[in-house]
Predict the structure.
Amino acid sequence: MGEVAVLFRLMPQGVETDLRAMAEAVRAATPESVRVRGMQVKDIAFGLKSLLVSVVMADAGGVLEQTEAAYAKVPHVESVEVMEEGLL
């Protein structure tokens, strides 16, 4: 079984959301079997920014969905979207 690299885009509830605090909460919410490789803040429009989260996980059933669900439960996260996914 190989590994998969996944790039998530997390949208905050509004422009006033503290993305540093959100990033810390995302790290804490990441399942143990998933490794966070990096995070980046990306400008969207009109002051709104998103948090891009790059992770590596095992190519096993349910891990991607589990991680996406965990990120969706983080406070002040409006939505979670898988932007890219690829085998390593």
In short: The longest helix spans residues 19-29. The mean pLDDT is 96.
